[in-house]
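Recap from last week: sequence in, structure out.
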Amino acid sequence: MSTTTNTNATQQQQPGRTWVGPTAPERLSILRDAKVIAIVGASDKPSRASYFVATYLLSSSPYRVYFVNPVAKEILGQPVYVSLADLPEKPDIVDVFRKHDDLPGVLTEAVDAGAGTIWLQLGSWHEGVAADAEAAGLNVVMDRCVKIEHARFHGGLHLAGFDTGVISSKRQVVA
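Predicted structure tokens:
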């Protein structure tokens, strides 16, 4: 599904960005339709964003989550795979935590693995990868966090990005 015809004012206001990503309802649809997420560039270091996202996805989402990292052996008690080609099943979403120059190679692996969506994390933007991914029939999300988007759509996001467990339209009054 091509997402280039959709509008997203936030992304269009960024200088040097011409690609327009999926709208909020389209991102929700991508997340609802997914069953399997592969985290490429997953880390076993608790200080890394990929570790935080992995912890959230394993504990607070319905997804089967796989980790891809050529050097780690285990993350959060789960096996780690060297590449997307080694996964036991096709990923619906490939969530990418890799540097800019590695993104074209990750896209090639994602296409070869039969992924439906390539999702580049916060701060990650590559218009060439977006164009190539869409040409290959993949959905593309860039500069967004799977954890934040999932929590936002499912009522678990506090201003700081944490689940407070409180369902209210008013701020909690602390004495």
